[in-house]
């Protein structure tokens, strides 16, 4: 039987290493590549303009690639459970294919679409390709539980073996007997949305440093893989949080949207490593991909993973509700230039280095402001191009010392930490230009500058730039005691989940890759 297929693009916005798309083309006479744009889904309501722009770029790139195969992308607006029954009937669909997604919302959505497909006599095929491994298999190998340490994850994946090799993108030859029927009104009915139609203001955008799409992802991958010595020597903690251009690959947004396959990245790294001395996990680039796998596994295997309450591995902390502090942090008005520069870069560009994420996450939670990591998670979800649900939730728990990492007495200084890699404060001057005339001596602590220096710099603290909202030296010590009290209330067995010594210092936002 020759099938009429819909391939449903969600993440996995690429042709390379897309086994579900290849499955759609088997015994297929007609194919309809579909992306369902549901602006009101829980996954989309909290998305900022940079992320929408990236998605639109990725969809345009995907449509361009499909055109080269004599096909097109059909963008359909609405809820999947409402649009698919109509499409099944309209196109007389017999098969639906998609990439497996482990997020709770996605699993619920896919279960409902699966039920509707069955009602319409539509066969469903889904394939694992967003992660290196089948996450369910990792949990199964660990007696049905998510591994709570990186070392344990490494042991499990070692027993499974290396990730599957990526498969090539479909060619025109693969499509020679397959048609995509398009009407003259395709753009009108199924065209890619604009920012204006998504109620976003393009005027608020700054320069787009990271354009969305598979072609851009593969170009960046090629560019980095050509730097063989850099790849082999890469150690994540040695990279700089406040360099003026990224000190890491910035491939994470492309992996979040599936413009780049994790397996393709893994095996390209393997090729570069071949026969050479190279860094090892957790700090190597292979190690970063395994961190991603670690948090995906936790996100699937731990109930209520994006919340404190009802999350069985999360320390229950009596966080404060202080909307003024939260707004000051999110809007870069804390009065600490290093923190404010990072949050400004995040809002403008949609990306910050993983150690910069450490600094602002610690500052918001256990370090200074004592605000719940769930609030920080929401802001990152909105602003980060790589705001991946599992990684975002996992890393906020880690940095707030709520889960995985328990050395709560190690606090990032909002002053000293940035000075390590940028004594002159060039990063601060780039993102907070009103402070650019401050001498290096005061750039991290402008409130300590004499009035004459502030006047000469043209920026008076308390008038042109805010005073610090807290006194770090005092509040951080108080918060350590509050954290100690929260830990004292935990059940005795929870301390067993603390990472071993080998993982000390491995706390990281994998997204900053």
Report on the structure:
The structure is a single chain. This protein has helices at 19-25, 49-67, 80-91, 104-119, 135-141, 150-160, 186-190, 214-225, 228-233, 252-256, 262-273, 285-301, 323-330, 337-349, 354-367, 373-383, 389-399, 416-419, 426-431, 440-443, 451-457, 472-488, and strands at residues 3-9, 28-37, 74-77, 95-99, 123-127. The protein is globular and about 80 Å long. Helices cover 44% and strands 6% of the residues. The longest helix has 19 residues, at 49-67. The chain has a five-stranded parallel β-sheet, sandwiched between helices. Residues 495-510 have low confidence and may be disordered. The protein has 22 helices and five strands.
Short description:
The protein has 513 residues and is of the alpha/beta class. Helices cover 44% and strands 6% of the residues. Strand 4, helix 4 and strand 5 form a beta-alpha-beta unit.
- Gross morphology: globular
Which structural category do the helix and sheet elements fall into? alpha/beta
**What's the Cα radius of gyration?**
24 Å
Order of helix and strand elements from N to C terminus: EHEHEHEHEHHHHHHHHHHHHHHHHHH
In whole angstroms, the N-to-C terminal distance is 45 Å
Here the CATH topology of the domain at 323-474 and 484-489 equals DNA Cyclobutane Dipyrimidine Photolyase, subunit A, domain 3
Low-confidence stretches: 495-510
Helix share bin: 40-55%
Indicate the mean pLDDT. 94
Count helical runs.
22
CATH homologous superfamily of the domain at 323-474 and 484-489?
A: DNA Cyclobutane Dipyrimidine Photolyase, subunit A, domain 3
**What is the number of strand segments?**
5
CATH class of the domain at 323-474 and 484-489, named Mainly Alpha
Give the strand content: 5-15%
Largest sheet: 5 strands, parallel
CATH architecture term of the domain at 323-474 and 484-489 = Orthogonal Bundle
């Amino acid at each position: 039987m020759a099938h009429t297929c819909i391939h449903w693009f969600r993440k996995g916005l690429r042709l390379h290493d897309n086994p579900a798309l290849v499955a759609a083309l088997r015994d297929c006479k007609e194919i309809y590549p579909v992306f369902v744009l549901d602006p009101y889904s829980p996954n989309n309501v909290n998305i900022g303009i940079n992320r929408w722009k990236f998605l639109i770029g990725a969809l345009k790139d995907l449509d361009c690639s499909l055109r080269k195969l004599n096909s097109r992308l059909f963008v359909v607006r609405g809820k999947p459970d409402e649009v698919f029954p109509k499409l099944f009937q309209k196109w007389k669909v017999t098969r639906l294919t998609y990439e497996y997604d482990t997020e709770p919302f996605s699993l619920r959505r896919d279960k409902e679409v699966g039920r509707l497909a069955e009602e319409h006599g539509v066969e469903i095929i889904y394939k694992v390709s967003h992660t290196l491994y089948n996450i369910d298999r990792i949990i199964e190998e660990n007696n049905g539980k998510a591994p709570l340490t990186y070392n344990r994850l490494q042991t499990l994946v070692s027993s499974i073996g290396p990730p599957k090799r990526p498969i090539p993108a479909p060619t025109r030859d693969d499509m020679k007997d397959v048609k995509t029927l398009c009407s003259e009104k395709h753009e009108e009915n199924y065209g890619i949305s604009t920012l204006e139609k998504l109620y976003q203001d393009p005027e608020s955008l700054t320069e787009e440093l990271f354009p969305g799409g598979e072609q851009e992802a593969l170009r960046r991958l090629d560019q980095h893989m050509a730097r063989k010595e850099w790849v082999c020597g890469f150690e994540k903690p040695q990279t700089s949080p406040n360099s003026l251009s990224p000190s890491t690959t910035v491939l994470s947004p492309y992996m979040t949207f599936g413009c780049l396959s994790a397996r393709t990245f893994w095996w390209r790294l393997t090729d570069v490593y071949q026969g050479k001395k190279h860094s090892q996990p957790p700090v190597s680039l292979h190690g970063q991909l395994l961190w991603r796998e670690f948090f995906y596994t936790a996100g699937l295997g731990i109930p209520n993973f994006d919340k404190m309450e009802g999350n069985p591995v999360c320390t229950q902390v009596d966080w404060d509700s202080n909307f003024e502090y939260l707004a000051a942090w999110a809007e870069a008005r804390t009065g600490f230039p290093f923190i404010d520069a990072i949050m400004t870069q995040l809002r403008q560009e949609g990306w910050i280095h993983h150690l910069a994420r450490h600094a602002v996450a610690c500052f918001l939670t256990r370090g200074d402001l004592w605000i719940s990591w769930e609030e920080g998670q929401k802001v990152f979800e909105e602003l980060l191009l790589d705001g991946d649900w599992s990684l975002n939730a996992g890393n906020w728990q880690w940095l707030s010392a709520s889960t995985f990492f328990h050395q709560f007495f190690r606090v990032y200084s909002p002053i000293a930490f940035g000075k390590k890699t940028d004594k002159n404060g060039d990063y601060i001057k780039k993102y907070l230009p009103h402070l650019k005339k401050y001498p290096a001596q005061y750039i991290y602590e402008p409130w300590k500058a004499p009035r004459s220096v502030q006047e000469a710099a043209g920026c008076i603290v308390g008038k042109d730039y805010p005073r610090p909202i807290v006194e770090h030296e005092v509040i951080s010590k108080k918060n350590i005691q509050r954290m100690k009290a929260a830990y004292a209330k935990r059940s005795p067995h929870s301390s067993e989940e603390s990472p071993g010594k080998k993982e000390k210092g491995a706390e990281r936002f994998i997204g900053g890759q």
